[in-house]
Amino acid sequence: MTPAMRIKAFVSGHPLWSIFIFASLIRVLNIWHVAVFGGKFVIEDSFFLTFSIEWAQSFGFMAGEPGSNSFVERVPIYPLVVALFQAIGLGAPIFLALFNGMLDALTCVIIGLLGCMMERRLGLVAGGMAAMWPNLIIHSGLVLSDALFVLLFSAILYCAAKFLREPTASWSLASGGLLGFAIVTRTVAQFLVPPITIAIGAIALYHRRSKLNAMGLSLMFVVGTMIATVPVLTHNWVKFDNFSFSVQSGTHMAYWVVPPIKAVENGTPLAETVSKMRGRFVDGLERDGVRETEISPFEVDRRLKEIAIAEILVSSPLAIAKAWAKGITVNLMSPAILIDTRVRALATQSFYSLETPHFVAKVWRYVVGNGPVYGILFVIGAFGSIVTLGLSLYGALLLWRRNCWVAVFTGLAVVYFLLLNGPVGSPKYRLPLEPIIVLLTSLGILGLWDWWQTRYSKKQEA
Predict the structure, then answer these.
(1) Cβ(361)–Cβ(57) under 8 Å?
(2) In degrees rounded to 5, what are phi and psi of residue 196?
(3) Over residues 231-258, mean pLDDT
């Protein structure tokens, strides 16, 4: 038996292991290349490397007391993982990147399982596509919580698909538990609890279960979410007298959501709006006779949210809609390769700092201004994004024809994340959608393959 035949036999007999091994190899090679050729494993900030131990100390998992309250900026699950690695001497970014890579390889396996629920070949194609998916590969090689979040969200999709077929208490509880851990990994998932709770009851009734059974299944889901969320909320209530998960919302709304809206509404530069929002926050502190260091991070968060919401409420609805539309466009169309630290090193300017008459001019100036190599990579990535979007839309149409309810829930999940991300656009914010996009793209590819095969067969018969 030749090596090629052995590989084919192994893939046929062990498809999930094949997907995991293939995905792991690609991610390890990417991490090796980053380490050898001058890339970075840390992007945006070094929060997880700096404050993870403080989360562990605050929960009592490690000796000592936190040096500050800055650790509550993020939710604790991934910081606790990082703290564990640091405690055993593996806290260097490369080890965390390798861990994230293995998490992402598991995500590829789950995507394959989701595909297999429709047909075996879809599972193999989707798992293989996920293993080679640029956005997943790039972000799994960074010290970010996204790889863990995408794994959890993919597992939620799998449990939800199982529940949609057969509503049981075990699938309901598993879905809730996974969502709870996803929430304390990234709070973007917290608003999914009410609609999914309602959907679980509705699905049970659709399967002709009793009203009591439907209510019980919904309750099981809520109980599942509480397993991970209640300890975090209790911690914050006891230590900070606040019933919130983290203090990110205020900063995000004031410095990332409001500026794009104002840029659309009256052309105000982003940096100028950020400065104004900061000024209003400082003015509020002075008016109340307090300093920022004297109040808790949750109070800072509350004040920033109030300022941001007040500014959004007086903004033009049309400007808000346009800002959201731009954010959605960037989230769906921006090439993932641009987030890679090796490619970012080629950039000489910031996309968000550029001021131009309109969005297209901004993209053009950004690409042209970063040199020919960057421009070529952008064109390749943009072409891939357009092709992927087209195939996924075709895949969505095929999914609708096969199972309209699955298509509806899939569409709602996509809409949820696109609307919640709002005007903030980046390949990073597309990550929760990638399992769905991979599956739909794979379905589209197989649909085109079947169409071509049918057409070719008819020509042969003629």
Answers:
(1) no
(2) -70, -35
(3) 92
pLDDT above 90 covers what percent of the chain?
70
Transcribe 306-357 into DSSP letters.
Answer: HHHHHHHHTS-HHHHHHHHHHHHHHHHHS-GGGGSHHHHTT--S-TTT---S
User: pLDDT at position 274, please?
Assistant: 93
CB atoms within 10 A of CB 231: 14
Summarize pLDDT for 382-420 with one digit per residue, the tens: 899 999 999 999 999 999 999 998 999 999 999 999 999
The domain ranges of the chain are 316-462
- Asked whether 309 and 342 are in contact (CB, 8 A), the reply is no
What is the C-alpha to C-alpha distance for residues 287 and 305, in angstroms, rounded to an integer?
Answer: 17
Q: What is the pTM of this model?
A: 0.93
Residues 22/101, Cβ–Cβ less than 8 Å: no
Query: What distance in Å separates the CA atoms of residue 417 and residue 61, rounded to the nearest whole number?
Result: 33
Distances (CA, A) of 394 to 130, 187, 387, 390, 451: 18, 31, 11, 6, 12
Three-state DSSP state, 462:
coil
Is the pLDDT reported for residue 355 higher than 80? no
